[in-house]
Amino acid sequence: MSQIWLVPAFPLLGFILNGFLGKRFGTRFVTFVGPLAIALAFAQSLVLFFQMLEVEGNVLHEHLYTWIVSGNFEAGINFQVDQLSSLYLLVITGVGFLIHVYSVGYMDGESGYYRFFAYLNLFVFFMLLLVLGDSFLLMFVGWEGVGLCSYLLIGYYLEKDSAAEAAKKAFLFNRVGDFGVLSAVLLIFLAFGSIEFATVNAEAATRLDYGGSLVTAITLLLFLGATGKSAQIPLFVWLPDAMEGPTPVSALIHAATMVTAGLYMVARLSHLFVLAPFTMNVIAVVGATTALLAATIAITQTDIKRVLAYSTVSQLGYMFLAMGVGAFGAGVFHVMTHAFFKALLFLGSGSVILAIHHEQDMRKMGALSNKLPITYVTMLLGTLAISGIPFFSGFFSKDEILWKAFSSSYGGPWLWGVGFLTAGMTAFYMFRMIYLTFHGESRVDSHVAKHVRESPFTITIPLMILAVLAVLGGFFGVPHVFHLIPNGIEVFFHDFFAEIPGGHGTVSTEWTLMILSVMFALLAWFVASRLYHSGFKIASALRSKWEWAYQLSLNKWYVDEIYDALIIQPGRLLSTHLLWRLFDQNVIDRSVNTTGIVARMVGNTIRPFQNGLTQNYALIFTLGTFLILWYVM
Amino acid sequence: MIPIEHILLLSALLFTIGVLGVMLRRNVIIMFMSIELMLNAVNLSFATFARGMDSMTGVVFIFFIIVVAAAEAVVGLSIILSIFRTSKTLDIDEFNLLKW
Description:
- The complex is a heterodimer of chains A (633) and B (100).
- Chain A has 633 residues and is mainly α.
- Chain A has helices at 6-25, 27-54, 83-106, 113-132, 136-154, 161-192, 197-207, 213-229, 238-241, 247-256, 261-268, 270-273, 277-298, 304-324, 328-355, 373-387, 393-407, 413-438, 446-451, 457-472, 488-492, 507-532, 537-545, 547-554, 559-606, 614-632, and strands at residues 60-70, 73-81.
- Chain A folds into three domains: 1-134, no CATH class; 276-554, no CATH class; 559-632.
- In chain A, a hairpin with a 2-residue loop joins strand 1 (60-70) and strand 2.
- In chain A, helix 1 (6-25) runs antiparallel to helix 2 (27-54) and helix 13 (277-298) runs parallel beside helix 18.
- Chain A is globular.
- In chain A, 50% of the residues are buried.
- The model of chain A has no long low-confidence stretch (mean pLDDT 90).
- Chain B has a single domain, classed as Helix Hairpins (Orthogonal Bundle).
- The model of chain B has no long low-confidence stretch (mean pLDDT 91).
- The interface between A and B is medium-sized, with 11 and 13 residues.
């Protein structure tokens, strides 16, 4: 037996223990249980991974419980491990475990330590449900569950208003996406009579017309859900605000795992998506636009976590670009490498933030490389990886995406150009962050500066492990042109994803594009080093020339303001005047009040009869009897 | 042999006295006795009909009424006793707390 259920059971048990007993048994108990639950889940995931490789067809399936039976509809709690979910399992539990260990150091001494670990365990549980479920129903349970945990963890600092606002915002934006997923699932049930992934993928081509309106509607609605969860245009604005949560949360939920759920869904249903070329184009264009837009915003942010947040949005855009041009494997590969280096970068930024006493503003950093040597080196490695410097992990995955964006029959030079531009900007803003944080002269507050020291080993060890993964993770998927080792990702996902027809491009073009993008990244690195090697001085001179562009970027293209004007304010007006003043006050309140008034009037009229005089009652009783007798006779 | 009409007339008279007693007298004990009077007026008419129709059913009813009246007397007198202890009066008009 494969015992898949053990994987989510461990984090669930961790949640129950931490949530219900953590307060009573104290910090040491929580420190022991929280990470251990994830470690056990990781161990079981590894076992499943190798079992899955040996099984014929590479699928492990486990039926736990029949949940709903209604007519010809049947939904069970069934777990399924195949190539895609086993890869996600390893990333979720592996990176998740490192982040749990990191949290032990990072959250040390926080009130509500047990609450944090309980939520974190619960999050991992739901995330595992999401990727293990063999049908939409179980995936949707996980989908909602991770949204809930995201909400709880963004709002972890209960006393901060901004955290509560950010949590609400994340939740509401996700609900818009959830509406899309739910409608799509209903349509899928209508079309297939089943909501199991295996059935949908296998029968998609026979039951639905290629490019038909039904399949386009289904996939567009699913993609709407994906934009909510994975922070794409138009629903991306919640992710930067989600940085109000503690840094390990940003690393785990808002970089490595939950935000890739949308990509997971698209990859899982690749056979459905390829039937809708229109949707594929929408995905590619939205992904590329998001990547570019987020990168332009990241360039001017001064909050270190916000730079990383916009970088995450941008990288997720990259992954959607890959999905949109039919390069599902490349997209999932980038999910994996991104999980490594972005978790590393977030955890590194957390280490910096902790060292300078919870300061996130890069204007108050600088010259920290000597004081935080391990953090510095690991973050530098992460930056090299995300910037696509050759032979670091990001290079392979990003280059694969760029190549597919150019050569696929759904792609083209335009999509490649946007991706290429974004890649350069990514290198620029990441090295800007490195220079502003670790180089130049110190702008740290002088009281704080004296106490800066490297973080404890619970923080640095996860950083080092992730750094190794960020450096070497790319060798799972070395492109063919190198002719060194086979492309591990392609071998691994052999025949798993839907293939799209055609594609063009030669080896020499691939080499040219690769060299171009590397050159561009190196150039961006160079520019960043010239501009920011000694703080903001040079950059601010440049800024005054391009004030309007600077303001546009700093204010995030005013997207929040536009949403406020277009949706929130009209909604508020509608609610105030129509729903509240007109309907609520005039219809509902008035009908309730009228009921009360009538009852009171009747009461006032009959009340004098109950005057407490027994003989009065006797008199009325007798008269009543006479009346009845008179009537009867 | 006394004619049935006469006995029924006596019964109605007793019943009316009882009703008027309950409605007009202020003393709780007197009211209570009036209630007993009404019960026994009914008993009397039951007995009359039982004899006139030569049936035992009416007599059985009388036994039931006597038993219920005894139980009622126990409860009623206890209530009267306890309200007298708290208010030192037996005037029914003084016991008017239970009202709107």
